[in-house]
């Protein structure tokens, strides 16, 4: 469930009740197709939170929205967004649109520093880049968040890892959020119908610029696993370093992103980073998923790079 950040402001007089807590709406933080996110304040503690409201047009929509809540409950990790509260609010058909059956409300922490995408925009405006050691340390923590998902029994994949879905805490901790695309990672594709269904789901839930090649063309008699996220990680590392997706220029030209992804035509700029950045991006973005590393291999590689850099200082 992708959230497009769009700043706006309005003041809410009425309190929103989620379970036994009440919140006042302060402003609109973002909007997506069937959801929006508001900045809210706890009436009692005056602490700020993000409230995600998912509009459900059917019981099936409601089931999918509640899957996001259940996935959030599964993971307690410093690098994965925690769930504060969640509730389903039935909609009175006489006061609301008749084709809406309910709203699912999700209360999460509010991250005032925004996302890695926001940070990329700030750096771009100042014509600056992250220092390489900060780049690796932040990237390692993103990997650690994914490790918690990939090591779950059964393994889960996030399926929409991108800079806009990694928030930054006050202490610079990166936090994976927007678990609406997350699902059990390992899927055996036995029929062409299964392949088409997963491909359609990926098209709806996984951002094109960060989507793994095997999700553009899901082959029959193949197995999809958590390494879809590893490709996305490679794209995120590239974006954090060079302040744009590896396929941004393809998108800007209006060319086929699917063809560019499946051909993995990567271009690296010389901005003063070591060869480790280019080498690790290529390591993570192996076109054949069976040749792609698992998260533990990625963490080992990044840890070795950090250790070698710190030993040189």
From TrEMBL:
<dbReference type="InterPro" id="IPR008271">
    <property type="entry name" value="Ser/Thr_kinase_AS"/>
</dbReference>
<dbReference type="InterPro" id="IPR052239">
    <property type="entry name" value="Ser/Thr-specific_kinases"/>
</dbReference>
<keyword id="KW-0067">ATP-binding</keyword>
<keyword id="KW-0723">Serine/threonine-protein kinase</keyword>
<keyword id="KW-0808">Transferase</keyword>
<dbReference type="InterPro" id="IPR011009">
    <property type="entry name" value="Kinase-like_dom_sf"/>
</dbReference>
<dbReference type="GO" id="GO:0005524">
    <property type="term" value="F:ATP binding"/>
</dbReference>
<dbReference type="InterPro" id="IPR000719">
    <property type="entry name" value="Prot_kinase_dom"/>
</dbReference>
<protein>
    <recommendedName>
        <fullName>non-specific serine/threonine protein kinase</fullName>
        <ecNumber>2.7.11.1</ecNumber>
    </recommendedName>
</protein>
<feature type="domain" description="Protein kinase">
    <location>
        <begin position="23"/>
        <end position="306"/>
    </location>
</feature>
<keyword id="KW-0418">Kinase</keyword>
<dbReference type="GO" id="GO:0005794">
    <property type="term" value="C:Golgi apparatus"/>
</dbReference>
<dbReference type="GO" id="GO:0004674">
    <property type="term" value="F:protein serine/threonine kinase activity"/>
</dbReference>
<keyword id="KW-0547">Nucleotide-binding</keyword>
<dbReference type="Pfam" id="PF00069">
    <property type="entry name" value="Pkinase"/>
</dbReference>
